[in-house]
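Customer escalation, tier 2.

The customer says the design service returned an amino acid string that "doesn't look like it belongs to this structure." They asked us to rerun it and document both sides in this ticket. The original structure tokens are below, unchanged.
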């Protein structure tokens, strides 16, 4: 019997990898289908297994960000979550730019990790809260693009504003659809339009930009 959420873990520390695998396998609807220890393993396993989620360490041999970039290009159906000790904002932004759907710090608890993976599987994006707060502060302090921000927001329709507000609250496409009484497919279409109009790459950046506007 195949679990609902199939996961691949790639980390060059066997003890951590084993512990993470045990945690995820303890969840009735998750299954760790493969493990690896380097970027080459990550790319190969993504292509061979086509998991729902692949967890990547940034500092593993070959580089987690490089692996994420290759996986997002060759296996776009695979959702990518970085699981790392790095709290550098540059690593966060490069990971998101490379196609990561989540950026999780290794100090996280097992149950919270399971919940985040479930959210990512359902279409959410995630950045560890303390990192998101620091990135938001940087956005708030940067004044050069204030005018541009106002211009891009003015291009949003009333419905797109609703969608953006829901994304900023961390809701998944399914939850937004249920709240606004529209289909999940329609929500996805609106989210795509919002990202294009705001000139951002993903839901996390859109949410940060929305929060920045609310604080101005």
């Amino acid at each position: 019997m195949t679990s609902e959420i199939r996961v691949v873990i790639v980390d060059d520390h066997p003890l951590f990898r084993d512990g993470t695998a045990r945690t995820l396998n303890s969840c009735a609807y998750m299954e760790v289908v493969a493990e690896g220890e380097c970027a080459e393993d990550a790319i190969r396993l993504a292509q061979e297994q086509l998991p729902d989620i692949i967890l990547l360490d940034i500092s593993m041999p070959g580089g987690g960000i490089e692996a994420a970039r290759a996986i997002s290009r060759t296996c776009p159906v695979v959702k990518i979550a970085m699981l790392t000790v790095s709290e550098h904002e540059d690593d966060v932004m490069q990971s998101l730019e490379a196609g990561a759907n989540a950026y999780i710090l290794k100090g996280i608890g097992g149950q919270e990790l399971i919940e985040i993976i479930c959210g990512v599987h359902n279409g959410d994006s995630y950045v560890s809260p303390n990192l998101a707060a620091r990135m938001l502060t940087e956005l708030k302090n940067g004044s050069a693009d204030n005018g541009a921000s106002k211009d891009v927001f003015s291009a949003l329709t009333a419905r797109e504003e609703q969608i953006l507000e829901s994304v900023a609250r961390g809701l998944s496409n399914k939850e937004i659809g249920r709240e606004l009484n529209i289909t999940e497919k329609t929500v996805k279409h609106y989210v795509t339009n919002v990202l294009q109009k705001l000139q951002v790459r993903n839901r996390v950046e859109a949410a940060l930009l929305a929060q920045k506007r609310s604080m101005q």
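Tier 2 assessment: The sequence is consistent with the input. The first strand starts at residue 5 and ends at 10. The longest helix spans residues 184-198. Sent an explanation to the customer and offered a walkthrough call.
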